[in-house]
Specification:
The chain is 24% helix and 26% strand. It is of the alpha/beta class and 337 residues long. Strands 3, 4, 5, 6, 7, 14 and 15 form a seven-stranded mixed β-sheet that branches. The protein has a six-stranded parallel β-sheet with strand order 10-9-8-11-12-13, with helices on both faces. The protein has a two-stranded antiparallel ribbon with strand order 1-2.
């Protein structure tokens, strides 16, 4: 056994509005010899995700808030470099929630051994083949099921969940898939690479008007990553019996004032709509089915993906701040080794 030095990113203060580099601090942690059952892992990739912004507030949510002066956590994939656990041999690739550090040493129970991906980067376990892909799948099967011939609208379509959701909607039988994004580059990518029939730049004009024009026959399913005016747009365009999966509301995460509710909620009643918020914690049992289907879709060349990769633990905060302002296409990951 041996000791190891690890760089950790911690929460130094709670953001007021948009987070800044000053809200984070860096510390060095010294690991001693492994205790029985422990493993030491060198992380290869870590994830930065919108939900992490909510955990920086000291408020009730579906997961406990990050604590000041403690190392942040999040999805990561790495390789075992020392082990005192028979289930986690040296060299094994493991998926876990000890992100925001380059080396981690913890009990083996917190690590899941996964297979190498021939010809594919391990970072896919944090994106299309991981929690973000599963989130899109659950939203479009369990929460707001897509039926054959549906018209589907996806907000935040060029992000990690959005790029997965658009393709999954099509594979589940959607006739028309419409997405929103915040730049011409992203809009063009949605239609050229991800199979969207129409893509809307919400910065060009009110999204409600754009969606009316893109879906004159209305929409049947809305997968929401943005909230705010996008939710109002969907409520305006829903057909009778429409379904909404509320996955995120990134447009409101950094506001310091109370956000006004949609002005057209009465459509929920008059059109018999179903709107349901969800988090993935209650649906992890869907992972085996999702993994089987997504792996098959990948092997058949039916799924495309993009990653925005930032190098180095010392740039992890930069990656997070960039992602919060839409600086990513597809999944934003930090390459740590």
């Amino acid at each position: 056994m041996s000791t190891a030095t690890s760089t950790h990113i911690q929460l130094a203060s709670r953001p007021q509005g948009w987070p800044t580099p000053e809200n984070f601090s860096t510390t060095v942690v010294e690991y001693g010899d492994l205790a029985p059952g422990e493993v030491r892992v060198r992380n290869e990739f870590m994830s930065v995700d919108p939900y992490m912004r909510g955990r920086m507030n000291d408020v009730r949510s579906y997961v406990p808030p990050f604590q000041l002066g403690e190392t942040l956590t999040g999805g990561a994939v790495g390789r075992v470099i020392e082990s005192a656990s028979e289930a986690h041999p040296v060299g094994a690739v493991v998926l876990h929630q000890y992100g925001w550090r380059d080396i981690v040493q913890e009990d083996g129970a917190g690590f899941r051994v996964v297979e190498e991906l021939p010809g594919l980067p391990l970072s896919l376990y944090l994106g299309m083949l991981g929690m973000t892909g599963l989130t899109a799948y659950v939203g479009l099967t369990d929460i707001a099921p897509v039926h054959e011939g549906d018209t589907v609208f996806i907000s935040g379509a060029a992000g990690a969940v959005g790029t997965a959701a658009g393709q999954i909607a099509r594979l589940l039988g959607a006739k028309t898939v419409i997405g929103s994004a915040g730049s011409q580059e992203k809009v063009d990518l949605l239609t050229s690479k991800y199979g969207y029939d129409a893509a809307l730049n919400y910065k060009d004009s009110p999204i409600r008007q754009q969606l009316e024009q893109a879906a004159p026959g209305g929409i049947d399913v809305f997968f929401d990553n943005v909230g705010g005016d996008h939710l109002e747009a969907a409520l305006n365009s829903f057909n009778d019996g429409g379904r909404a999966a509320l996955c995120g509301a990134i447009s409101t995460y950094n506001t310091q004032e109370k956000v006004a509710g949609p002005d057209n909620m009465v459509n929920m009643i008059s059109r018999g709509l179903t709107m349901r918020g969800f988090t993935l914690g209650g649906y992890t049992h869907r992972a085996p089915e999702f993994t089987q289907k997504m792996t098959a879709w990948f092997s058949e060349g039916k799924v495309a993906y993009d990653e925005t990769v930032v190098d180095g633990i010392d740039h992890a905060v930069d990656a997070f701040l960039s992602m919060m302002r839409g600086g990513n296409i597809g999944k934003m990951v930090v390459r740590l080794s």
